[in-house]
Amino acid sequence: MPSTLLWASIAGLMALLPAARAGFNPNSDENLSVYWGQNSYGQLGWPNGQQRLSYYCETSPSINIIPLAFLNGIETPILNLANAINNCTAIAGTQLFSCPQVEADIQECQSKGVTILMSLGGSTYTEGGFSSSSAAVAAAQNVWAMFGPVQSGSSAPRPFGTAVVNGFDFDFESSVQNMEPFAAELRTLMDAAGGTYYLSAAPQCPYPDQSDESFIDGEVDFDWVQVQFYNNFCGVDNFNNPNAWDFSTWDTWANSVSLNRNAKVLLGIAANTGAANAGSYVDGSLLASAIASSKSYASFGGVMMWDMSQLYANSGFEAEVLSDMGAPASGSGSTSTSTSTTTTAPQTTLTTITTSASPTTTSTSGTVPQWGQCGGEGYTGSTQCQSPYTCVETSIWWSQCE
């Protein structure tokens, strides 16, 4: 038997090791979710872009959740992982790829405790949902066969081989039809499979989000939403504007509207200046204040960032956000907690953030520079981009010159 001195030495060494990582924790207000797959930093032409998935799981033990972005098509599946596709091979007759490197990386990340989601949609998703409920259910079954547990006898292509994701993230930037039966079928399939699987969504911060309202408002059991508080007038950059910032509306959604009354709300932020439209990136005391205020609400579950490549190019930002999440809450948010996991939502009235005015306007004469706003609901400025850029819609709230 080792001596007491030896045990003390071992304990001392263990204390120097990082704490064991856990995936999404519904009882925590310090979850950190970071999207991987789109190489936002590298696509802007800057060096040191997106690395393979396992690199981030090995070097950042604080990240709990990684949504893989994106499955851009669902009914006709389209896989887009930017430069990570360079290590994949095309699957004949499809717009999918076989990615053994990603397969191995998913399994390695999961072995370290990371929750890996397949994110559906993205800004280039154009299918608009499904033509019918039956088409939506069939699509959900196909997606589950592609990314869920391997099904004996299934002919569905599996981009990540034997790797099984921990659930799905819904990131839609425009209105979709029949998405509720699609989400409901995925939830049913996941629940029937046993184990722990999650559904999340990434709505814009104005409530109600026109893209996600139909399936997150009391119809399907979502575990959390990671709300995009950037690229919108209600973003963290307007935290000091009481007519714009309103985390409380999403807290009310979690407590009164969501089918899952224990659903968490993650504060979505830009991970770097180039990760969002001009002015949307926030750090320092303003970000600390927004996080501290959000922590005062019982539904607050942590922070989401877009995206991994931008985060790693922004030295010290992850540590700053972790410090902010660990600081005391401030403000007078809801401190009540729910005791019911799933219940039928009553008719509830939430404060709806209006979009009759945009926080940024540009003279109707002149042109808009790269990354500047050129459209969106309520926008009254110029829609003409400087050459050679064109105006690209990223959501109903925002179009930008790219």
From TrEMBL:
What residue spans carry the region label Disordered?
A: 328-369
Q: Spans of biased composition, class Low complexity?
A: 328-367
The record lists the catalysed reaction(s) as: Random endo-hydrolysis of N-acetyl-beta-D-glucosaminide (1->4)-beta-linkages in chitin and chitodextrins
Renumbered to this chain, the signal peptide range is 1-22
Q: Does the keyword rRNA processing apply?
A: no
Keywords, comma-separated and alphabetical? Carbohydrate metabolism, Chitin degradation, Glycosidase, Hydrolase, Polysaccharide degradation, Signal
Question: Which BP terms in the Gene Ontology apply to this protein?
Answer: chitin catabolic process; polysaccharide catabolic process
Q: Name one GO molecular function term.
A: cellulose binding
**Which GO cellular component terms are attached?**
extracellular region
Report domain GH18 positions: 30-323
Give the protein's recorded name. chitinase
Q: Which organism is it from?
A: Oidiodendron maius (strain Zn)
